[in-house]
Design brief:
The protein is mainly α and 278 residues long. Helices cover 76% and strands 0% of the residues. The protein is built from eleven helices and no strands. The longest helix has 37 residues. The protein starts with a helix and ends with a helix.
Length: 278
């Protein structure tokens, strides 16, 4: 009992920590969007007057980069791009994987075999390799990066929903609905769909954490968003040339920003998974 209580307390603290960090990022994102709506983030001209690679100081808390741009502001702007790409990629992944998984699991037969082969083939390719290839084909851009991640993650949602559908469709109430002459679409959306989406929040949260890292990897390789768009991975790439000379702040803050966002999402995802398995 004592051990179980301690474990529950640790789990609650981990979940709270994850949500607190995520709330901080959400505030940063909405603040940047609000400032951008009033054109208050156009600092490209004023940056020309700033000292390049200025160390952290009162005027620039996180220092400046090689173009004199404020590292703090650029890092905060990077959170907006991260949220946009992660949200769009997971939305597109659900849009593809969810209906295909329902159709495949419910109807079976040749449709199931074909979709399973295609999705299993995509799933067998390493995430980073596949995302790099797709991003190279699509080119740079927020939507293109989201589509690249969508193709990477869609098979996971397909497999999850398909397996859940196979289990649910053998239940007595589903068989009774089929016997009573209810249409297939009614059975799928009224009886199966509400029961197969239960584990989705776990996968969504864990994939969100993973997609932040993949987006950072694409940006680091120059395959993410355009160069003029603040993004943590591309900023880390630019910081590499200055790091050996002792200029650490251009790499530290984007790296920390990526690390803590992944940490928060991982905390929440692991806690959801633990509670789901109880």
């Amino acid at each position: 009992m004592i051990g179980s209580k301690i474990q529950d307390d640790i789990s609650k603290n981990i979940r709270k920590t994850g949500f607190i960090i995520l709330i901080f990022y959400s505030i940063a994102v909405f603040s940047m969007l609000f400032l951008d709506s009033f054109n208050l983030l156009d600092f490209s001209e004023t940056a020309l007057n700033n000292q390049i690679y200025a160390p952290p100081s009162i005027s620039h808390l996180c220092g400046t980069d090689r173009l004199g741009r404020d590292v703090c502001l650029r890092t905060l702007q990077g959170s907006t791009i991260a949220f946009e790409v992660v949200f769009l990629s997971l939305f597109f992944s659900l849009l593809v994987g969810l209906p295909l998984g329902l159709i495949s699991g419910y109807f079976g037969g040749l449709i199931d075999k074909f979709l399973s082969i295609v999705m299993d083939t995509i799933f067998s390719i390493p995430v980073i390799l596949l995302s790099v290839v797709i991003a190279f084909i699509f080119g740079r851009g927020v939507i293109n990066a989201a589509l690249a991640l969508c193709i990477v993650y869609s098979p996971q949602y397909f497999r999850l929903i398909r397996n859940q559908t196979l289990l649910i469709k053998s239940e007595n109430y589903v068989e009774a609905a089929n016997i009573s002459g209810v249409s297939n679409m009614t059975v799928i959306f009224k009886y199966i769909f509400p029961n197969v989406i239960t584990p989705l929040p776990i996968l969504l949260t864990l994939n969100a954490a993973d997609s932040v890292l993949v987006l950072g990897s694409l940006g680091f390789l120059g395959l993410g968003v355009p160069a003029n768009v603040p993004e943590w991975g591309s900023d880390l790439n630019l910081a590499l040339t200055a790091l050996p000379t002792g200029i650490w702040w251009t790499a530290l803050y984007p790296g920390f920003a990526m690390f803590f966002l992944v940490l928060a999402l991982s905390f929440i995802g692991e806690d959801l998974e633990e509670n789901f398995n109880k």
